[in-house]
Amino acid sequence: MQSSVLDILERKVEDLTTLPGVAVRLMEMCSDPEVRIGNLATVIESDQVAASRILRLANSAYYGRFAGVSSVREAVMVLGLEAVRALGLSIGVYSAFETKESAQRPDVERLWHHSIGVALLAREIARRLGVKDRERIFVAGLIHDMGQLVMLQYLPDRYESLLRAVTGSSVAFDRAEREALGTDHAEVGAWLAQKWSLPRELWLPISLHHAASIPEGPDPGLVAARIVQVADWLVLTQGLCPTWCEGRALPVPTSRKSLALDDDSLLQLCLGLDRRVSQICSALGLKPVSPDLFQRTLHQANRVLAQLAVDLNFRSRRLRQSMDALMLLQKVTTALLGRQDVSSILEC
Question: What contacts 348, CB < 8 A, 6 or more positions away?
Answer without folding.
Answer: 331
